[in-house]
Amino acid sequence: MDAIGVLMMCPMSNYLEQELDNRFKLFRYWAQPKQRDFLADHAASIRAVVGNATAGADAELIASLPKLEIVSCFSVGLDKVDLIKCKEKGIRVTNTPDVLTDDVADLAIGLILAVLRRICECDKYVRRGAWKLGDFKLTTKFSGKRVGIIGLGRIGLAVAERAEAFDCPISYYSRSKKGNTNYTYYGSVVELASNSDILVVACALTPETTHIVNRQVIDALGPKGILINIGRGPHIDEAEMVSALVEGRLGGAGLDVFEKEPEVPEQLFGLENVVLLPHVGSGTEETRKAMADLVLGNLEAHFSSKPLLTPVV
C-alpha cells in the first residue's frame, strides 16, 4: 500500500504519523507552505485523508481531491468533516468511538472533583508556603450532588455510571428518552439545568447543539451550579459563561474545550472556581495508540476491500 497517497491534516500522534509513513505514501498537509498549490500538484495521488477534531475534510478540500475515497478521523467528533459532501461523492468516513470513552469520562469526574474541592488552588496553596500561615478554606462535597448530563451516548453514559458511585442522582437530556436506563429524563436543557447541581456537556457537536448551553441554561444552573464541558467548545456560549462566572451567577466550571482553541478567555485565568485544561480528554498514551490503530485499521480495511472497523458513512 506504499503507493497510496494519504493526506494527514495536522500533527496529532507521532506513532500514527510514523505508521502512516511506513505503510502509505504520506503527505503532511501542515508542512506545506503553499497548500493550494500542493493540493493541485498531488490531487491525483491522494486517496485518503486523516483528520481529527481540529482539522478534517471540508467541502473545499473534498472538491480539490477528485481521487479521495476515505476520510479516517483520529477522533470521535466529526464536526470538521462535511458528511453531506462525503455521502454525495461516495467517500467513506470513519472515526474512533469506544476506545476513548473511559478516558473522557474519567476526566469529567476529575474536573468535577477539581472544581468542587479546589484541587488546583490547594496545590498552589501548598507550593507558595501559605499552609504554614493557616489551613485552606472549606470546599464543597461531590458525593450526593445532582448530576445532569447533556447527551447520554457512550461518553455520557460512562460519566453517569461513574457519578453513580458517588451516590449522585442522575438526570439527562437528549433528543429522545433512552429506553435502556432508569435515569431521569428532561425534555429541555433548561429543565435539566434547573434540577442539577452539576451540568456535564457530553453530546456531539452539530448545528442543533451549538450553544446548547446559553444564558438561559446558565441562569437555570445558578450561582451554586457547576458546568463541566468535555464535549466541544461551541456547545457553550462562551461569552455568556464568562460573564456568569465573573459576575457570580454561575458557581464554577471545569473546561477541557473552548470555542476558539487554543485561545482561552483571559478573564477565566484569575478565577479559582474554574479549572482549565488544554483539550486532553483522550490524552493518554494507551488511548491515543488505540485511536491511531483504529485509524490505520480502517485505512487498511478500505484499501484491502474489507469491511471498515468503525464506519460512519
UniProtKB/TrEMBL annotation:
One function term, GO molecular function aspect: glyoxylate reductase (NADPH) activity
A Pfam family this chain is assigned to: 2-Hacid_dh
Residues annotated as domain D-isomer specific 2-hydroxyacid dehydrogenase catalytic: 13-312
Location of the D-isomer specific 2-hydroxyacid dehydrogenase NAD-binding domain: 109-281
InterPro entries in the record: D-isomer_2-hydroxyacid_DH, D-isomer_2_OHA_DH_cat_dom, D-isomer_DH_CS1, D-isomer_DH_NAD-bd, NAD(P)-bd_dom_sf
Domain of life: Eukaryota
GO CC aspect terms: cytosol
Keyword field contains GTP-binding: no
Signal peptide (from-to): none
Keywords of the record: NAD, NADP, Oxidoreductase, Pyruvate
Family to which the UniProt record says this protein belongs: Belongs to the D-isomer specific 2-hydroxyacid dehydrogenase family.
Descriptive protein name: Hydroxyphenylpyruvate reductase
Upper taxonomic lineage: Eukaryota, Viridiplantae, Streptophyta, Embryophyta, Tracheophyta
